[in-house]
């Protein structure tokens, strides 16, 4: 019973506790869109059961009911002229829709009473004409919302001064580089611009917590890099908790104080970026975090507690002392690209498959019989494609992953 009560509280009652009056106008706009389908269905059944109207009359009524939609553009201009009073127009639209519904309700439930005032057909025509007018008024308000639309009151209902509103608009517009879009209508913006505007509307409220879901997903690479820095700076300045969801591990590593890596609905590891990068607790985390990803070398024998070496291709390699036994004979040794190096002596044989010049360093791709590995070398290393090499690794930071569970073994390096 307690679980049911908690579920109802978390999913339904808590919504009421979080409700603010400032949410009402946009909610009414969305409600109007849903109600329009309901009134159409009711109208069809009412015409069938109660009215004796010709097809020609109904066709003409449909024409007049479409006139408000044809006048949507001049109504939009009207909204622009009285923009400061837009909240009243939302209520006007909602009132017309409600009146249309009440008339329809009265005709169905109190038919004799309604017919004693006006003819049934007259009531029906009024109801049919009021509804689209209400829908159009609310739709116009939604379309006419410009980028610079900001809250006029704080969470306690206190009005902001005009200077405060302008200051907030300019600060956020400069931060997101949308100052040239302030007078534009949101409905006419491209996807990337809409994403920046949505981000700005969250920032301008200066909340105590941000919930961001892929906020930089549609931005170009240069601006995304800049926004990573600016969002980090913003976080430091306003000291607001930020929960940031992204599939880009580079964003997570560069921006997060702490990272939670999820896979198939489970949190596999959480902690500081450095800890997650250097000491991944599962093979998936090692492969997902880092660019290039962690290299995995097969170790085809069991690992015993206190063992401090592994055999690869009949060669013994030192590893951090293990504090656990493996449950599989087919395990994996994980090594980061910067912890692997070219060796003149003992090493895994392979050949150079590719070379990526990245300015201060190079990434070599080595093809061996165990798989393809990437190693980070200095930019003065010059090897031709197809050159035969040997690669080894730093024994102090190698991680053994159990082949059955994919989890890292506790060792001197990772615990």
Walk me through the structure.
Helix 10 (221-238) links the parallel strand 1 and strand 2 (241-245). This protein is elongated. It is an alpha+beta fold and 415 residues long. It is built from 13 helices and 14 strands. The longest helix is centred in the N-terminal third of the chain and has 27 residues, at 24-50.
Task: Show the helix and strand layout.
Layout: H1 2-18, H2 24-50, H3 55-70, H4 72-81, H5 86-109, H6 111-117, H7 120-143, H8 162-176, H9 191-203, E1 209-213, H10 221-238, E2 241-245, H11 249-255, E3 259-263, E4 266-271, H12 273-278, H13 283-288, E5 295-299, E6 309-312, E7 315-318, E8 331-335, E9 340-342, E10 348-357, E11 361-368, E12 371-378, E13 388-393, E14 399-401
Parallel strand pairs: 1-2
Antiparallel strand pairs: 3-4, 5-8, 6-7, 8-14, 9-13, 10-11, 10-13, 11-12
Helix pairs in contact: 2-5, 2-7, 3-7, 4-7, 5-6, 5-7
Quick synopsis:
The chain has 415 residues and is of the alpha+beta class. It has helices spanning 2-18, 24-50, 55-70, 72-81, 86-109, 111-117, 120-143, 162-176, 191-203, 221-238, 249-255, 273-278, 283-288, and strands at 209-213, 241-245, 259-263, 266-271, 295-299, 309-312, 315-318, 331-335, 340-342, 348-357, 361-368, 371-378, 388-393, 399-401.
